[in-house]
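1st attempt posting a full record on here, be nice pls
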Amino acid sequence: MKLIYNPVFLEHDTGMHPENKKRLTSLGDLPVTNLESGEQFLELVHSPDYIQKVKQVSEAGGGHIDAETVVSSGSYEAAIYAVGATIMASETGDFALTRPPGHHAYIDRSSGFCIFNNIAIATQYHVNQGKKVLIFDFDGHLGCGTMKFFYETDQVLYWSLHQYPAFPGGGSAEEIGAGKGEGYTINVPLPAGSGDEIYMDAIENFLPIAKKFNPDIVAVSAGFDSHQYDLLLDLRLSLNAFYKTGFILSENFDNIFATLEGGYNIEMFPKCLYNFLDGINQKKMKFEERGTDSMIQTYYEYEGRKALLEQNLRKFWK
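the predicted structure (as tokens):
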């Protein structure tokens, strides 16, 4: 897995917003990938009215399109190329290093720094080809837009590890899908203060369900805001956890691609990203950090939530 990057993503100018261009410039000079626009794919997920709204606000010079999300004059172009890069990554097995992020974006509105839902669009692109897709979302926030879009289908298994409660709300152990999709949403709600051992247990405990689903392709919403020094959440992952995440995915699945979601500590973000890539590529981990653990009360809370989720999923996954 290699990085797919283009400077067009820097044209999404958010100023001093937590989600700003320094997230990508912190990586230094990167090889530039020639991209195609993903504009033609937007309606796989988004309504025409919403697409037009984003385009008009961007062409008018920008502004806030919701309480958290900024649009600038270059945002529409950056966003459609972010979709194009994610589609490309889904076909080449690579990592789309994009801005703006996407997993909070809904059919008809933005949310949580996200404009178009890159991972959902790429997933629906493959569903339309008859493929089963596992979405593994390890951003520290629930990918609410992604979850809602696929909540009633059995062609997509949405599996999220996220702090609970936290923005955007939702993501409890009771939310497991509906209709044909009941049992195909796995929300693992991590208590604030969760360290490496809770996080790794959450992956290893529910991995058998993901494998039993037997996906044709694995779509990764890769967010690094679960790191212990990220300012927007209260999870406590070390750099090592991102390496292990990549390694476990690579060991257990073929046809994996990823796109960038959160991760806002620009000193730690490059280390998190490169450790994840080293894990996926089964190379030696570049950046080691002392592992983290959790307070006993946090672990007990997690165990209770895990038991409830297991109970809710049991009739769907023996």
